[in-house]
Amino acid sequence: MTEEERARRVEGAALRHPIRAQLLDLVRELGTVTSTEAARRLGHSSGLCSFHLRQLARYGYLEPAPARGRVRPWRLRGVEPAAETAPVTGLGELSRELEDEGYRRWLAQRADAPPEWQADAADSAVLYLTPAELQALAGEIRGVLHRYAGREHDPSARPAGAGPVGAVLRLFPLLPETPLPETKDRP
């Protein structure tokens, strides 16, 4: 195994941990996050979040953001904060709309694409998972996707014949059409 292959394997393993995947998603959503904020939002201890934030920094995903007094936030590596720090709203909805539009465009133009690009790898399934299993599965899939993510910004890393491919992952609980009545056991 070459040094580069070993580095990719270690890097992919860094994202397989469900808490790290949750933290990366949170940083993408909020722009910056502290271990205390992460703990409050994700339901983990601040010490655990702090450890995993440092691990994400160690593997090059995060970096310290400018301190706010004694508060030590983290941000995605190489991302400068916006001039205003107003929370971004609707970004998830916009992203889903763009993903759906890209998929509709591909379906409409599929017959005109070169033969090797006319097939997709779409799949779906109903899985019965615990919340922890859902997060672990998401982390594993993100780890696989991340192995190819560096190619987006580094054309020299792309093999011959590579082209942009949309990868959409949506893991979510299937809820009934009508809300369940509230009980003491459920909020």
TrEMBL record:
InterPro entries: ArsR-like_HTH, WH-like_DNA-bd_sf, WH_DNA-bd_sf. The lineage of its organism: Bacteria, Bacillati, Actinomycetota, Actinomycetes, Micromonosporales. SUPFAM superfamilies: Winged helix' DNA-binding domain. It comes from Actinocatenispora comari. This is Transcriptional regulator.
